[in-house]
Every structure is written in C-alpha cells, then in structure tokens.
Amino acid sequence: MSEKKQPKKISLAKVFVYALLTIASVLSIFPLYWMFVMATNANDAINRVPPAFIPGGELVTNFTNVINTIDFFGAIWNTLIVSSVITIGVLFLCSLAGFAFAKFEFKGRNILFVAILVTMMIPPQLGLIPQYIIITKLDWLNDLKAIIVPGFIDAFGIFWMRQYISSNVPDELVDAAKIDGCTNFRVYWNIAIPVIIPAFATLAIIKFMYVWNDFLWPLVVLREESSHTIQVALRGLIDNYVRDNGMILSGTFWATVPLIIVFLLLNRLFIASLTEGAVKS
Question: In what residue span(s) does the ABC transmembrane type-1 domain sit (predicted)?
C-alpha cells in the first residue's frame, strides 16, 4: 500500500504572524475606505450618529460640486508637473552628489557632508522668509518655478544616495572603469546608476509623496488660482459658514487617487529591483 501523505502542520507562530499582518492591513486600508464612504454620501448622512459605514449614491454629485467650486483638474495638472519635475531633478542631482561624496576624495569632503546633515535638523519653516525674499526678487511669484527650483536640492536625498552607493558600488569596480579610460561622469552613469535603481525607487516614492502633499510653501508663493497645486486648491472647498463634508472628502479622495497609482507603480519597481539586487552569482 502506498504511504499516505501527511497533512502539513501549520505552526501557531505562522498563524499569529498572518493574523497580525491581516489586522495591520485592514487598519491601514480603513482610512482610505472611510474617506471613500464619506465622499459618496450626502452631508446629513455623514453628520448623523452613527454615521454611514457603506458607500452611498452621491459620488457624482459631490465631485460635480468640487469641480464647480475649484479648478480641480488644473490643480492636479500643476501638482503632477511640480512633483514629477522635482522628483526627477532630485534623483539626478542627489545621486550625483551622493556618488561624489561616496567615491571621490577632495578637500573638505567630510566637513561639507556634515554641513549637509546639519541642515536636516533645521525646521523648513525657518527658511520661509529668506526663500520668499529671493523668489520675490526673481519675480517668480505665482509661477511653478518658485516651487520647482528650491525643491531640487534635498539633504536627505544626498545622505541616502551617499550611504547606498558606499555600500553597493565597489571601489574596485570604479577604479577598473577609470583605468579603462572612463570619465567620472561615465563611471557614474554606466557603473553606479544600474546598481542604485532600488535607491532611486525608494527616494522617488518619498520625494513624490512629499511634494504632492506639500501645502505651506505653495500657499505662500502661489496666490493666483490658475497656479494652485491641489493641496492649496482643496482649501477652497472649506466655507466659513456652511461646510459640505461630502464635497470636501470627495475632493480629497480624488486628489489621493493619482498619488496611490504612482506609489503602486514605483513600489512594484522597487520590489523588482530589490529582488534583482538580491540575486548574486
């Protein structure tokens, strides 16, 4: 008689881990679901006790009110331009600076790197007045350049890239490329960049989400409605006398959808790149 296969035993620890992950996932998704529920209900359904816990039928009405109140699509377009340009600029400039700090020896390198790290400890609000004066003198008020240009340099991005390049780009590989006649930029472009794609994906997610959600600086320098980013535009949904929570949450929900899509795309790229980097010959 053939031996019967014994059923696999599921350990108690594995059950606990999966249960914990399931609970954490539900708790993470619930705020987004709750925002969607409020975006699909009328104001009276949101304000009653207990509030509605299932989606309603006011999604189109609430979003129509959003479009009639603010230039929603124009603000989304402005935010997409600003977030994309800043993210691309940060990835290039910060990786270039990180490569220089990690692989080049030059006078004052450590002092300059420490100075960059010190700037991470300074609250960004302290730089609002000097930046505003500079932007005013450059005549960049109500122009997206007022957000894009100051956003190109990121101290955390330089630190992140320097640490990643130091750990994952061997000095021997850089030296061999230089012996073969490669310039410093070609070593960066052909040797470093293919290795640091996971770092690119991680920094892109962080920077894109930060710029997309930034409110204070765009509020200061973008006064005309045609130049508003989405976070500044959403402020126009709040009325001092009558607050339509369904309309507000509808605008907030649809403003979050592009961010979720970009995050998922970059997250997949990050996981794939990290998996490739984990395979060693």
Answer: 76-266
Question: Residues 212, 234: contact at Cβ < 8 Å?
Answer: no
The stretch 221-231 carries a mean pLDDT of 90
Round to whole Å and give the CA distance between 96 and 192.
10
Residue 27 host element (H or E): helix 12-39
Half-sphere exposure (Cβ direction) of 18: Cα atoms closer than 13 Å: 6
pLDDT at 179 over 80: yes
Residue 206 burial (C-beta neighbours within 10 Å; 0-12, 13-18, 19+)? middle
Instruction: Flag whether pLDDT at 180 surpasses 90.
Output: no
Cα–Cα distances in angstroms (integers) from residue 237 to residues 62, 65, 98, 101, 166, in the given order: 11, 9, 42, 46, 47
pLDDT in tens, 59-80: 899 999 999 999 999 999 999 9
H-assigned helices in 70-229: 72-103, 109-119, 128-137, 145-148, 155-168, 171-179, 184-186, 193-195, 197-213, 216-221
> What domains sit in the chain, N to C, each tagged with a CATH number?
12-64 (no CATH), 71-239 (1.10.3720.10)
Only one residue has tokens 């997949």, namely: 268
Q: Tell me the C-alpha distance between 151 and 107, whole Å.
A: 27
Q: Which long-range contacts (CB under 8 A, 24 or more apart) does 35-39 make?
A: 35/249, 35/252, 35/253, 35/256, 36/253, 38/245, 38/246, 38/249, 39/63, 39/246, 39/249, 39/250, 39/252, 39/253, 39/254
pTM score? 0.85
